[in-house]
Amino acid sequence: MAVSRDEVFAKVRDVLSDALGVDQEEVSLEATLQGDLGAESIDFLDIVFRLEKAFSIKIPKGELFPDEMLNNPEYVEGDRITPAGLEKLKQALPHADLTKLEAKPFVSKMPDLFTVRTIINYVESKLAA
Amino acid sequence: MRWIWIDTFVDFVSGRRASALKNVTLAEEYLHDHMPGHPVFPPTLMLEGMAQTAGILVGEARGFAENVILAKIRRAEINDYAFPGDQIRYDAVLDSLDDRAGVTSGTMHKNGKVVGRADMIFSHVRPGESSELPPHNFVFTEQFMRLLAAFRPRAATGSTDAG
Questions:
Q1: N or C, where is chain B less crowded by C-beta within 10 Å?
Q2: Can you give the residue range of the structural domain that contains B150?
Q3: Residue B71 is nearest to which of A18, A42, A53, comparing CB atoms?
Q4: Where are any strands of DSSP class E within chain A?
């Protein structure tokens, strides 16, 4: 049976609330994991494990949070993401909205890509696959 | 320096679960300072004991090829103190494991009664992988390996659950 978007949101909210120790009300669709919900690097791994368990899915390394691409000089120049890097991000994160990042392609803005909505979109794409 | 906060394993099933005991004794120096006249086993060391039990469980599951580093305590709850004469038992279960990390859940018992639980994530870092860490396996030192080796002969006699 297909899982509705509301059901996905409810489970994602539980996952993020447990992983980050935040109130359920704080987990709004537009909340960013790092800026708004206070996620640190190890929390992203925790979130991956919890999502895998909650939805019985497998999340390959770097698929949801492709942070390792920041180590590639082809994709990052100084404090900016290169056009090739943006293209790579578009391919890697079809579930994310890159509009703001394309306007200001700073590395420091990349964490803003990871909102609660991004996670829900990703989980839905995995469940539909 | 000796930084071992478990005395012995009493159960060890590779890749699945481990149990270890810690006997709290007034012979231990720190108890005379914590607290003066009222020795209490620090709850933080209860977390360390669980981390050592669960960390060895995670490390052994992949042949001790990597450093296993406590990365996050997902949840911790300790509801009672332990005093000299008490025996603490750490039961750890390996919930998931891959090349990134191991996830464990665990309960702490005092003299047979559940007094807490702690769920943890351990990161895998291969020796030499990070320039910020020593190039060798600095987690699983000889002291820890001896602890596990000491358990295995008993396991072979069938006195414990072999899984």
A1: N
A2: 8-156
A3: A42
A4: 76-77, 80-81
Which CATH fold would you assign to the domain A1-61+114-129?
A: 1.10.1200
Instruction: State residue B2's pLDDT score.
Output: 67
- Residue B100: CB partners within 8 Å, gap ≥ 6? A45, A61, B123, B124
Q: What is the average pLDDT across B77-86?
A: 97
- Is position B34 within any domain? yes
Q: Specify if B49 maps to a domain.
A: yes
**What's the CA gap between A38 and A32, in Å, rounded?**
9
A57 touches chain B (CB under 8 A): no
Say yes or no for a CB contact (<8 Å) between A19 and B99. no
Number of Cβ pairs < 8 A linking chain A and chain B: 24
The pLDDT value recorded for residue B101 is 93
Interface confidence (ipTM) of the complex: 0.80
Residue B10 CA from chain centroid, whole number: 12
